[in-house]
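Subject: mismatched residue count in predicted assembly?

I count 705 residues in my input, but I want to confirm that the predicted structure covers every chain. Input:
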Amino acid sequence: MKVIWALALKDIRILLRDKFGFFFTFFFPLAIAILFGVIFSGDSGSSKIGICVVDEDQTEQSLQFATALDSSNALEVTTCSREEAEDLVRRGTSTAYVVIKKGFGEASQHFFWGDPPTVELGVDPARQAEAGMLQGILTQSAANRFETLFSDPEIMNENLNLARDSITQSTKFNQEEQSRWLQFFNDLDWITTQQQVTASEEDVYQGVEPIRIENVDVVIQREGPANSFSITFPQGIIWGLIGCTAAFSISLVVERTRGTLIRLLMSPVGRMQILGGKALACFLTTFSMSIVILLIAFFIFDVIPASLPMLVIALFSVSLAFVGMMMLLSVLGKTERSAGSLWSVLLIFAMLGGGMIPLFTMPSWMRTISHFSPIKWAILAMEGALWRQFTVREMLLPSGILIGIGIAFFMIGLRMFRWSAE
Amino acid sequence: MLIFHHVIKQFDSIIAVNDLTLKIRKGEIFGLLGPNGAGKTTAVNLAVGILKPDKGYVEMESIGSPESRAVRAKIGVATQALALYDDLTGQENLDFFGRMQGIGKLQLKERVNWTLDFAGLFDRRKDRVKTYSGGMKRRLNLAIALLHSPSLLLLDEPTVGVDPQSRNAIFESIMHLNKEGHTILYTTHYIEEAQRLCDHVGILDHGKLLALDTVKNLIDKYGGESTILAEYEDREEKIQTRQPVKDLEKLMKRGSIRHFHMESPSLEGVFLKLTGKQLRDDA
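Triage response: the counts match. Full output below for your records.
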């Protein structure tokens, strides 16, 4: 074991002295994580959805609805014309637009008949993940308005009087129907008046409540990352892992071409010890790099792991997978130059696996392909430990796949391994 | 000390070592002389056990095959390629390879300092190897082979690409080590090196050992005759002879010699005679 440690420490020392390699192993991933974290979090530090609101009704009710949307913590609202709104969404500047259609205000006054107030929602097809959230916010805003109208007895009485007048003047109803509706409104009126007289302070009349909608803050209560850095730091770590893997696979090729591997073989050291030392160095570097970056994320960017044991399992399996990849890449590159170009293999994996852009933005066929990228499972394992709140059972799948990849790639690399360049 | 017994090593269709039989005696410097591609490095790799013979065997006398780690621990190798870590200092390289040889912590420091001193690199020990000259790297390469005080030293073309000063320093080191009792296998394609350093020389070409003897005996046997070129006032005369002194006297009696040149047979001639080609046609 002493020999393996000595071999590993030698490799780590060499890596630390290689300023270029060190940059790509530690600083580049950190820069990526912070940069994208800041971009995705916006100026205010929250992930608001940018929408355009088009008020075609221009009534008091439509204005109130637009104001309600604007006051939502989850939305960044701008007011514009329909053409501008459609254009902004088409160009991807805004996530969606909401058109408050003509007749919104009038429809808002009919609680019991007629068409409901209508809005038109146009969402960028590439941002479907936010569409559901947006629909929730719109429904919530409408429900808030409904609740306010029903909970205020004065407004309620006023609306009931309007309803009586409408029924009396309407030609759509026969006499019996008119009579039943008027009786219903009178009963409501009586309930409203009685409740005002008899109810206690705590039990004050809350009005007719056709549907109860919990005042849910969608941004806070939905299951998801605490902030954008929880997503970008795993991605940043992926870049660090790629840097480490490339650096160590190149160093193995360099050792082969310069003859140090042969020299090591000439000493009383076993072949497995030599490769074990290289694997240990790669494992220690990837593991410690991930820890250092996550510590920075924890102390500076409020990225708090959901589970530390899960995080250890995730990082262990991720590091193991990358050790396997290092071994395989080192046999695919015959010269230092060709080994250097093997970055591209890792980049393709990163591209397919969500290391560059989040998987949810990809079309479904690409998400299917991503299953073949170790990067996808690496990100999933880290996210599982950081904010997806994976149980041990849920963690088994990504970790198992990563450990399997690590062992399989290492064995293939071992089988194909050449000690000499000649 | 080291025995090759009818060793054959083949890579695909190329026979790198072909029925090689030789014995290196304890305390001697044995030279393996041959052009590039003759099979010298393959022989070294067989001697240190990282290659297995297809036929025959290699063993260290009364110890066993160098394929065993215990036997390998008694062999030091200065590889032809400068197998060093450029980003480590000279001292760190020695320290690392010393650990690989299993030298204990206390002894390691002492051995590292001794080899640094021996290689004349003590003052530069804390500099990274990438800042060393070619000669310094060669000396460090040799120093690594000496770290664990091996009883057998394999030096594979240790002076390739070295300036004359460093080459002389390496020669002196080798002779010093030999005086201290180290047995040395020295491969080279420089005839003058073999002639200067080696007690016995084996001439290798296409993996086959063409001749093996002391340098003197090889020259006597295969070197042919000495050549004397005598310049008179009006003519030149060139003769081949096995008795150059006597024949020079005869030439002097034929007239007044203004200038003469005598060329003794050398290993170059031996090689030419044995292989029909110059030794360093591609060197």
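Chain B touches chain A through 27 residues (CB under 8 Å). Marking this ticket as 'not a bug'.
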